[in-house]
Amino acid sequence: GAVVSQHPSWVICKSGTSVKIECRSLDFQATTMFWYRQFPKQSLMLMATSNEGSKATYEQGVEKDKFLINHASLTLSTLTVTSAHPEDSSFYICISWGDRVLEAFFGQGTRLTVV
Amino acid sequence: AQSVTQPDIHITVSEGASLELRCNYSYGATPYLFWYVQSPGQGLQLLLKYFSGDTLVQGIKGFEAEFKRSQSSFNLRKPSVHWSDAAEYFCAVGARDYKLSFGAGTTVTVRA
């Protein structure tokens, strides 16, 4: 069945560095990818919506220059956390909907820790 | 925009007892409704979903949920919980733009 593969599953980085998170859709074309963030003990909050071949749409309060999203192909969307700081430590997850079946497919999530 | 409310932050239930988690949503049309479970340190696993049709939906792990349009609810139930059901449960509503809005989550503790 359709799968979204998210990589890495966890990453620890130093403050000030950048981290790239990849989400690949397997067996289907992910025209749209949704990026969410989950802080400890909290729910998932939508950060941005990426559409293949166009600029991402960011939710209010999310810095587009800090969270760079690229969706250059129908099977790959990336989120780059630039100049990461400890407050960016969170669980990031991508979600896409199938193109032949009406279902949301989740990446496995990336646990980012900035030290 | 759609929204989801999970009124119960934390529920403790005895193993073998029944479980019901509440979910209320706000959306102008018929929503897509989901329940997900998240174990500590893990990603989210889909338990069940409702798009249309039969309002009583069966899911994995013995869970079921009932869509009640008049109450704008989509409560999750399990007749007999197992210790492995201890986790965080999220209700989510999806609109026609496919954006999912998640509830704050309900933590379920299972006592022996």
Would you write up a description of this structure?
The complex is a heterodimer of chains A (115) and B (112). Chain A is mostly beta strands. Chain A has strands spanning 3-7, 10-13, 19-26, 32-38, 44-51, 57-58, 67-73, 76-81, 90-97, 104-106, 110-114. Helix content of chain A is 0%, strand content 55%. Chain B is mainly beta and 112 residues long. Chain B contains no helices and 12 strands. The mean pLDDT of chain B is 93. Chain A binds chain B through residues 32, 34, 36, 42-46, 49, 93, 95, 97, 102-104, 106-109, 111, and chain B through 32, 34, 41-44, 46, 49, 51, 90, 94, 98-105.
Helix and strand content put the structural class of chain A at mainly beta
Radius of gyration of chain B: 13 Å
Q: Return Rg of chain A in Å.
A: 13 Å
Helix content of chain B: under 10%
User: How many angstroms does the end-to-end distance of chain A come to?
Assistant: 37 Å
Topology pattern of chain A, helix = H, strand = E: EEEEEEEEEEE
Q: How many beta strands in the DSSP annotation of chain A?
A: 11
Unreliable runs of chain A, pLDDT <50, ≥5 residues?
none
* Oligomer class: heterodimer
Sheet having the most strands of chain B: 6 strands, mixed
Largest sheet of chain A: 7 strands, mixed
H and E string of chain B: EEEEEEEEEEEE
Q: Mean pLDDT score of chain A, rounded? A: 91
Low-pLDDT ranges of chain B: none
Task: Specify the structural class of chain B.
Answer: mainly beta
- Helical stretch count of chain A? 0
Number of strands of chain B: 12
